[in-house]
Amino acid sequence: MDAHAVDDIRSHVKTYLMIFGALMVLTMVTVGVSYLHLPVAMAIAVALVVATIKGSLVALYFMHLNHERKLIYYVLALTAVFFIFMMFVPLFTNMDKITQRY
Questions:
Q1: Same domain flag for 49 and 79
Q2: Rounded to the nearest 10 degrees, what angle do helices 3-34 and 40-57 cross at?
Q3: Of the chain's two ends, which shows fewer C-beta atoms within 10 Å, N or C?
């Protein structure tokens, strides 16, 4: 094994350890926020933001998505938009029942 390969491996290990440290810090933030007794909406918002950051770090570095082609990002964005749309479908279908009551 040449010196370049050894340096490349060390660079990857350093990156993985930094991501692991960031995930541990974000886990501690999640636990710390749970002790703050925030209002439910605020607690959910903070938890979702932290979970999104953690999920993004895992996907980008441990699933190696940061080296993928741009097409995969467009497919993932389309999936996220479709998911959000599907989450709002029950709200929109029940909206006419809500407005008829008043």
A1: no
A2: 170
A3: C
Question: Tens digit of pLDDT for each residue in 16-71?
Answer: 999 999 999 999 999 998 899 899 888 888 989 999 999 999 988 888 877 777 78
pTM of the model: 0.65
94 and 56 fall within a common domain: no
Tell me if 23 sits within 8 A of 54, measured CB to CB. yes
For residue 49, what is the enclosing H or E element? helix 40-57
Kindly state whether residues 1 and 49 are assigned to the same domain: yes
Which tens digit of pLDDT belongs to each residue from 65-74? Answer: 777 777 877 8
Q: Give the structural domain span for 40.
A: 1-67
Handedness of CA 48, 50, 51, 55 (dihedral sign): positive
Task: Compute the distance between CA of residue 18 and CA of residue 26 in angstroms, rounded to an integer.
Answer: 12
